[in-house]
Amino acid sequence: MCIRDSLISARCRLAKIGLEWLRKAGIWEHGMSVFEKAEYGQRVARTKARMQDAGIDLLLVASPANQNYLTGYDGWSFYTPQMVVLALEEEEPIWFGRKMDAVGAHMTAYMDGSQILPYPDGYVASRERHPMQFLVEVIKQRGWDKARIGVEMDDYYYTARWHEILTAGLPNARFLDAFLLVNWVRMNKSPREIEIMMQAGEIAGAAMQAAIDKAEVGVRQCDVIAELYKVTTSGTPEHGGTFPCKPPNAMVGEYCAAPHLSWTDAPLRSDELFYIEMGGVRHRYHTPLSRCVYLGTPPEEMTRLTGVIAEGLEAVLDSVKPGILCEDLEVAWKKVISRHGIEKDSRICYPVGIGYPPTCGELTCSLRAGDRTELEPGMTFHCIPALWLDDYGLVISESFVVTESGAKTFANFPRVLFSKS
């Protein structure tokens, strides 16, 4: 064993000893998690119910967001292969990952330490061996090599190489596509999740205000975004923030016509539009928020179109209720913009929650024609009915939760085109 592996093994032992002491002292009941162990048990039970409905015995979870949801594990380790393994016959999931990251798994995941399964560092970035080969042997040893195995076929982190190794190494297993299985479970948030997202909404509003305050003629675009990042990280006096799943979409001038570009180090100029799409993040939960700032007195047409966006957004929010379909909410938006002679052919809303690079979107449904997903209490969305024209784009967006009485937004921020004279 090399010195580094010895040190990592020592860290793992110390982590186990330290957590056990804290648990006995009543100080640390479920690691660094902000959720009770019982809540994780409910998440696992709901996921297993979907597995049974889909005919899946063993679920291999590659998505970092889904891993976090099922176990509480939260580390910047997803650039190397890692999995959460959920078997119908096992009470708790198994965390499978790099040996040095097992320390963090003991600290953040809610499961018993025996459910933390590391692979040696020699499997990392090796031409001779791969972590999925190690996982194949684990599956064989546990008698799961003839199981119906669900894998997230279209997830960002489940690669063709992983699938090739798993299917070749487990020829007697039947592989099924389980993409979005956990995502659909995540759609219905608990009261504790909603509480955290409300805190993220406060951070989003504070960060947006900081960016607007900083935006002045002569100030570099990057300095405005730096101010925004400062607040999204430091949060509010009551609640700290953390890193977002992706950089803000922040475009200036003609670049506002392209929805997914970034800022530059150019100074802001008079009579320029600054498009800012960002969000607050609290314990990995995201609440996006978007507004535009005009450096000077905005043209009347920009002000008019912003008013149309605000009117359409409010029509959507006013229509939200349990039982309504996603496509029905898109109709409410279309009624407003068609009255003003405007057309928009892209979706206007998507579900949000836990976010790791590259997205906080839950990828399950959208507010657009043909989507008959029924809204339920506890579902959370980002409604962004932006308009992108030939010369610029305009946006007002809100993140909200579906309640028994309608939509409740996470941020409280004016729905206007801001101007800095």
What do you see in this structure?
The protein has 421 residues and is of the alpha+beta class.
- Low-confidence segments, ≥5 residues, pLDDT <50? 21-31
Q: What is the general shape?
A: globular
Radius of gyration: 23 Å
Order of helices and strands: HHEHEEHEHEHEHHHEEEHHEEEEEEEE
Strand percentage lies at 15-25%
Task: Write out the strand line-up for the largest beta sheet, numbering strands in chain order.
Answer: 4-3-2-1-5-6
Which class of secondary structure composition applies to the elements?
alpha+beta
As a percent range, the share of helical residues equals 25-40%
Query: In this structure, how is the largest beta sheet organized?
Result: 6 strands, mixed
Helix count, DSSP H or I runs of 4 or more residues: 11
Give me the count of strands: 17
Average pLDDT over all residues: 93
Straight-line distance between termini:
66 Å
Main features:
6-stranded mixed sheet; alpha+beta; 421 residues; 5-stranded antiparallel sheet; 11 helices
